[in-house]
UniProtKB/TrEMBL annotation:
InterPro entries: Ig-like_dom, Ig-like_dom_sf, Ig-like_fold, Ig_sub, Ig_V-set, T-cell_Activation_Regulation. It is found in: Cell membrane. Its main location: membrane. Keywords: Cell membrane, Disulfide bond, Glycoprotein, Immunoglobulin domain, Membrane, Receptor, Signal, Transmembrane, Transmembrane helix. One of its GO terms (cellular component) is external side of plasma membrane. Coiled coil: none annotated. The chain crosses the membrane at residues 221-248. Pfam families: V-set. Residues 11-107, 112-211 form the Ig-like domain. SMART domains: IG. Residues 1-25 form the signal peptide. It comes from Astyanax mexicanus (Blind cave fish). This is Ig-like domain-containing protein.
Length: 255
């Protein structure tokens, strides 16, 4: 779910837009997906019609025009393209930052007089909860990181569980992530840990599991140390053998 921070301005903004041409609706997409925001022209396509897009007052880099049923666009970004059917805007590889209220400005340039219409729509980007095991220099401890994108951080409360056991962790109220630090004997290899993110605005609970995996790590210095020890033992053996041979040789010489 997506939360629009300008909670007081948006209702008035959307109401005014609906009064102009009627809101086109709410479109929902998950991160990484492709979404189409439709914006059809109320004018005849044989006219020259210019389309301009904006989001939250900022220009969306994809303006285009139609003239004699032909579309021309030159400044669209790699993720944003003109969609031929239904006519509108295509956003690929959707990100959390793509969420918001979009305004499609439709201007009939030719023939005169110039006329302008507006179409508004809302794009909601579903929240994405991920859990990952971080690298740790201490083999007796594990560090887990739980991250949530697409929501307001001040409305998220994180908890960690192992089965029915609630695990203690550091929770920052204005953070979009939470970390869990466990040391022996409070974890074992193969434990399943669950991160929960409670979004208070809609009372939605997101959960994601992770299984702790820890392989035996060999120190980078273990092999050199073993080699040095073996070399020292070999040298000692050679010295002992040389000394025994020297003593034996002297005894034979005296005899």
């Amino acid at each position: 779910m997506f939360s629009i921070r300008s909670s007081y301005i948006l209702p008035v903004f959307i109401f005014c837009s609906a009064a102009l041409t009627g809101a086109q609706g709410v479109f929902t997409a998950s991160r990484g997906e492709t979404v189409v925001l439709p914006c059809s022209s109320p004018f005849h396509y044989s006219d020259k019609v210019l389309f301009k897009w904006s989001k939250a007052g900022e220009t969306v880099p994809c303006n285009y025009y139609i003239e004699k049923n032909k579309t021309d666009s030159s400044n669209c970004q790699s993720r944003i393209k003109v969609n031929p059917e239904p006519f509108g805007l295509t956003i690929t590889d959707v990100r959390s930052s793509d969420a918001g209220v979009y305004n499609c400005s439709i201007t009939k340039v030719l023939p005169p007089p110039v006329e302008e219409k507006f179409s508004f729509m809302i794009l909601e980007v579903s929240a994405d909860l991920t859990v990952e095991q971080m690298n740790s220099s201490d083999l007796s401890c594990v560090d887990l990181l739980c991250s949530l994108e697409g929501l307001s951080p001040e409305q998220i409360n994180f908890t960690w569980t192992r089965g029915s056991e609630l695990l203690h962790h550091q929770n920052v109220p204005t953070s979009m992530n939470s970390s869990l630090h466990l040391c022996k004997p409070h974890w074992t290899n193969g434990d399943t840990i669950t991160c929960h993110a409670d979004y208070s605005s809609t009372h939605t609970l997101y959960s994601q599991n992770i299984t702790i995996t820890c392989t035996e790590k060999v120190s980078h210095y273990s092999f050199p140390v073993i080699n040095v020890i073996l070399f020292c033992i070999f040298v000692i053996i050679i010295l002992v053998m040389w000394m025994l041979y020297f003593i034996y040789s002297r005894k034979r010489a005296r005899a």
